[in-house]
Amino acid sequence: xxxxxxxxxxxxxxxxxxxxxxxxxxxxxxxxxxxxxxxxxxxxxxxxxxxxxxxxxxxxxxxxxxxxxxxxxxxxxxxxxxxxxxxxxxxxxxxxxxxxxxxxxxxxxxxxxxxxxxxxxxxxxxxxxxxxxx
Amino acid sequence: xxxxxxxxxxxxxxxxxxxxxxxxxxxxxxxxxxxxxxxxxxxxxxxxxxxxxxxxxxxxxxxxxxxxxxxxxxxxxxxxxxxxxxxxxxxxxxxxxxxxxxxxxxxxxxxxxxxxxxxxxxxxxxxxxx
Amino acid sequence: xxxxxxxxxxxxxxxxxxxxxxxxxxxxxxxxxxxxxxxxxxxxxxxxxxxxxxxxxxxxxxxxxxxxxxxxxxxxxxxxxxxxxxxxxxxxxxxxxxxx
Lengths: 134, 130, 100
Fold this sequence. Notes:
The complex is a heterotrimer of chains A (134), B (130) and C (100).
Chain A: E1 5-10, H1 19-30, E2 36-41, H2 65-69, E3 78-81, H3 82-87, E4 99-102, E5 108-111, E6 113-116, H4 118-125, E7 130-133
Parallel strand pairs in A: 1-2, 1-7, 2-3, 3-6
Antiparallel strand pairs in A: 4-5
Chain B: E1 2-7, H1 16-29, E2 33-39, H2 60-71, E3 75-78, H3 79-85, H4 90-95, E4 107-110, H5 113-121, E5 124-128
Parallel strand pairs in B: 1-2, 1-5, 2-3, 3-4
Helix pairs in contact in B: 1-2
Chain C: E1 3-7, H1 16-23, E2 29-32, H2 45-52, E3 57-61, H3 62-67, E4 79-81, H4 83-92, E5 95-99
Parallel strand pairs in C: 1-2, 1-5, 2-3, 3-4
């Protein structure tokens, strides 16, 4: 199977709609196909990664812990758009600290989140073979 | 060219399924191969055989079903999304101990891997949603 | 690689059109479909933004314009395509990003 660049584009906040959850489900299944995977969080999509989500009172499943497991699925290119964070009064500190272990460097723990400007992310997007939106 | 399509929304609620259908027809007319049409999120509801829309309007599920049969298309409904929303074929209904199934002809139920495979095997993947 | 971007939301309803403009690099094409065609109408801030995005090609899906009674209100510099044209745009570009 050839290797293509897949980008999952996430622009919707969690819980108000199902897109964030079902997009993540595609990422997990897709991991088995050994493609070159990137995730992009743009606009309200950045809210998907915030810390401290507690869904008890709304009766929905809290799926935010799944993002922390992405590193184990070799999904470690997680782009977060800087302008979107800033517009929403957020910083990287408000987001989960997502990491992966680089087996080529003695399993050293590295950050999965790449904070990038819109312009930088646009350049990455332009290199993709497949852009999936939800 | 091999083209695959993803449909994220159900019939009538959003224009996504209509646009995807028109696009698919145009692609076939232009001689392209439609590798797969993958229905995700509420898109799985396009596959119900129980819809009875008004007579003077299009029947979206039937349109897809007929297009599929006429052109031997691979219309795939995601099993995870279908289970959530109650779209079942006979086998799945039996497996789940349910007394009814509702998948219209021309569609099949399968896993999310079919979407990724469609991306890998096709030249283009176009997403229709809301 | 050139991207085909599609936008299907009205520029007055959501920020999708603006977001797309932020990502459409020179040489790419933005195709307005469904409710996105409202961005192609004259006298709007959207039409101004389209005029200023000089390196990007803009197209609009004719059937969606007709459905909404907008054919007489199309801003300058925007190509009208039908579904066959939509398919051609997909084939001519390396990849598609659907802004939903």
